Amino acid sequence: MDMKNNFLFLPLGGSGEIGMNLNLYCCNGKWLMVDCGISFADDRAPGVDVIVPDAGWIAEIKDDLLAIIVTHAHEDHVGAVARLWPQFQCPVYTSPFTAEILHHKLVEEGLADQVEVNVISPGGSLQIEDFHLDFVDMTHSIPEMQALMITTPYGKVLHSGDWKLDPDPVVGPASNLEKMASVSKGDILAMVCDSTNVFKKGVSGSEGDVQASLDKLLGAITEGRVAVTTFASNIARLKTIARVAEKHDRHVVLVGRSLYRMTDAAKRAGYLLDLPPFLNENDAAHIPRNKLLLLCTGSQGEPRGAMARIARDEHQKISLTPGDTVIFSSKVIPGNEKSLYALHNQLTESKINVITEADEFVHVSGHPARDELSEMYKIVKPKIAVPVHGEARHLQEHCALALSLGAEQAIEIKNGDVLKLAPGNAEIIGKVPSGRLAVDAGGLTPLDGEFLSTRRRMIFNGAANALILINEQGQITEDPIVKLRGVVDVSLFPDLQDQLKREITDRHYSLTKADRKSDSKVEEAVRQAIRRVFRRLAGRRPITDVYVVRIEDE
């Protein structure tokens, strides 16, 4: 692949999935990284909370990586910067609010004094070698989302980031379509664009409308405590809830550490300064129940989130009683259904009133629906559409939509694909290694590596440990000792130890005399014997460790 005389786009995260965004642009052999985010683990990574992109390929050529540009402060765009920066060691550029969020993460990793973080005013511009970047204000569910018009000697590319067209965003300016039109003058080579809501007809909805709906809803709740849970990063929603609570004479208590971090960062960046002060958890006990609104973390049913701990009656300072109300002012992120619906049921069983977006208008998305996508294509008029920030079905549908809106070419791209944008025809010219790394015990380990594979196997199959005593002639001198962990319920198999003894003995004595003197041959024979028993009894293949002890003849 020629990377010296081309303009290239390469996603290492966020294409073919929603989350974990990491995008790279190359102009004449020099690279820019746009966003570096995390994803949250699922059942494939037991015991792991956070997943980050495998950026080893770009780390190997870090001398050619000029900078990291962060479009906004959501975890799936900024969350991996502090984890992965030691591999890159390049400057970071972002907006004031995002810089506040990033600073906290760098402090946690002990990197605050090492990373050069350059603050760019929203709507500003930046020149980095052959890359000229114009930052364009776009509305999203977090302040200071900045789309990027990237101008190079080969042409312009609009990198949309996450966005929507909200005429009444509550916090921050509306999307700056005038500037978008201005920087889009002339031929736009490509638009790399958010695909999250491509299947949703119409528009995503306005935060101002959510405020009106929550106002009406809260006005009808005159008794008991009200708890509202939402994404801590949704500063506009936090302001909406605070304003509505103030109108209905309720004091807002923050419950959950991430809410304190987000509101502090917002205030340092100049937001939320016109609100009554938020109270802390210690204040809740001193406020009448019908004068209190609890603003809680845990909108996705996270076991360690404040809402789940309150529902389990495990929170030290906050409790709910029958007749209280919980409002889930958020969407259900795919994959979280099971834990979230369990939380809803747990609250309902405790006689708590539960209200979700399925019941009332309490949430709007931060991503563009089809009418908003259509409007953006009419403004930018890209020759090439490159959908990102979506699963395969989202990208495919976005490609079809883009072609219907006048794009000459639409390219469905996957993580690791190297897309040549110019010169000449746009095409995928190669592939580089990409993947996912689990953040485990402070380090990074491959999601598909042996370590997590073994952990998964132990969870589903259990583990067996065997001790075999053998004399110098290779004869078993005592009954084998087999200890089990999570393989089967031994009470259901009263002759289990006899079965294991017979199978191990038969397999051992099927070895040649020479092989019986080899510890490795004996270990493998015993391992196969144990696994054979459990395959037959329960279809299980336990992780099996065998220890051979040689007894000297007297």
Structural account:
The chain is α/β, with parallel strands linked by helices. The chain has 3 domains: 7-202 and 365-446, Metallo-beta-lactamase, Chain A (4-Layer Sandwich), CATH 3.60.15.10; 207-355, Rossmann fold; 462-551, Ubiquitin-like (UB roll). Helix 12 links the parallel strand 19 (382-388) and strand 20 (409-410). Helix 4 crosses helix 8, helix 6 (207-219) runs parallel beside helix 7 and helix 14 crosses helix 16. The model has no long low-confidence stretch (mean pLDDT 94).
How would you sum up this structure in a few lines?
With 554 residues, this protein is an alpha/beta fold. It contains 16 helices and 27 strands.
Give the averaged pLDDT, no decimals.
Answer: 94
The level 1 CATH classification of the largest domain is Alpha Beta
CATH fold assignment of the largest domain? Metallo-beta-lactamase, Chain A
Q: Please tell me the total number of domains.
A: 3
Largest beta sheet: what is the strand line-up?
A: 8-7-6-3-2-1-21-22
What proportion strand?
Answer: 25-35%
Structural category is alpha/beta
Poorly predicted runs of 5 or more residues: none
Specify Rg, calculated over alpha carbons: 29 Å
Figure out the total of helices: 16
Helix content: 25-40%
Q: Please tell me what the overall shape is.
A: globular
Number of strands: 27
User: What's the main sheet like?
Assistant: 8 strands, mixed
Return the CATH architecture of the largest domain: 4-Layer Sandwich
N-to-C CA distance: 70 Å
CATH superfamily of the largest domain: Ribonuclease Z/Hydroxyacylglutathione hydrolase-like
